[in-house]
Amino acid sequence: MPTFTATDGTELAYHVRGEGEPLVVLPGGPMRASAYLGDLGGLSAHRRLILLDLRGTGDSAAPVDRTSYRCDQLVDDVEVLRAHMGLDHMDLLAHSAGGSLAMLYVARYPERVARLTLVTATPWALDMPATPEDRLAAARLRKGEPWFEDAFGPFEAWLAGEGTFDPVFEPFFYGRWDAVAEKHSALADEECNDEAADLYFSEGAFDPAATRAALADLSAPVLVLAGELDGGPRPDLARRAADVFRDAESAVQPGAGHYPWLDDPEWFVGRVTAFLDGRSGSLLSAE
Q: Per-residue b/e over 219-233, b at no fewer than 16 CB within 10 Å?
């Protein structure tokens, strides 16, 4: 397991899967170990995935200063990883809450990114959260599912601030609630650093106006990928996030939830590789 040392002395780990041109991958959660990403549905057959375990998660050490879990404080960990890998610039993919970290990184180091892929990433860094109404609207799309009646009530109550997260509504986060999804979901508790997650979005993490201005000037191409059934972000929110960038395209994966590489690996890998290889223009008319 390769490691590198952050500027504050914290030892950080990353995992390498596959061969070919490197693709640096930032996990979500927030603050979930990168193991949940697997090989992103087989993307490792096309790219060498460099999956970072953020500080205090997975095989990375916890920092002495816990305030360094804040999203903006993690930006330089990504930059040190890039330098450690010897990359003048890099392709970057971020999932979910990792998308806000990626946005802050490209805002600070725009010359270091060749292509940016944001996968089901709610744009917190742009002050564009997924609302409870968004999540309920997406949840209602699942009304025909056999688990819906048991899950919807607790989900609605949780979004209203009543009660805690209940595993009964985990199916809303997956396009297909099958054995693969159940196994994936069951690992979440042991893969997440709850203390770090509580600090990730803490006060001062974001300056949306400055980030928007920086992203509007970003020359690197951007793909913003949403799942058709995902509530955070819904496809319309993902499209509005794409509009912030100078050169961005949005894509909606049919039948997918928050983890689209599990729902239809072939579609996901095909769409992402087409973008990374600069072949996605021919796909846009079909989306």
A: ebbbbbbbbbbbbbb
